[in-house]
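As a next step, the fold was encoded as tokens, giving this record:
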Amino acid sequence: MKVILLEKVKTIGNIGEIVNVSAGHARNFLFPNKLAILADETNANVLKDKQKALSKKMAAEKATAETLKKKIEGTVIEMIKKVGTNGKLFGTVTSTDISKELEKKGIHVERRQITIEGAIKTLGTFDVKAKLFGDVTAELKVKVTIDAAQAEELKKQQAEAQKRNADRKAAKIKAEADAKAEAEAKAAEEAAGL
């Protein structure tokens, strides 16, 4: 069912947009709460009449989006995640995770407004966009770092691995030196016995 939105509705769209929703959602939620009207010819004409009021609402929404953009621009969100031995994350960083982190900073952005180019599955800094309103898009950075406790654990494991390798090399060099000394002693015995 096509409806014309009279208010910004979470997960559906902005004011004045014509969107397709399920009939039940429209009848049970959107119409009773006066959030939308049916998108037919008569309502389209009514919408043209209400366009001035809607344009004011849209201007207010756009102004709100612009102020939110100023808050978001240049923001760096640091996410601490667990990492496997190959340097890849256990799981990925999702738009929901980013939305929750922004919420902690007092910035409300719906997860559906956040766009991540590719999947964030490794450590590093990534550019993320938030489409706040029509043509208002904010950019922020997401920095994915390793959990401090896990970093210490990985350093210990690497140090132990290096020690084991050094011990193996020393044992191999000692074995080669012993074998060489034994061969020289045997050669000296054979030379003395002749």
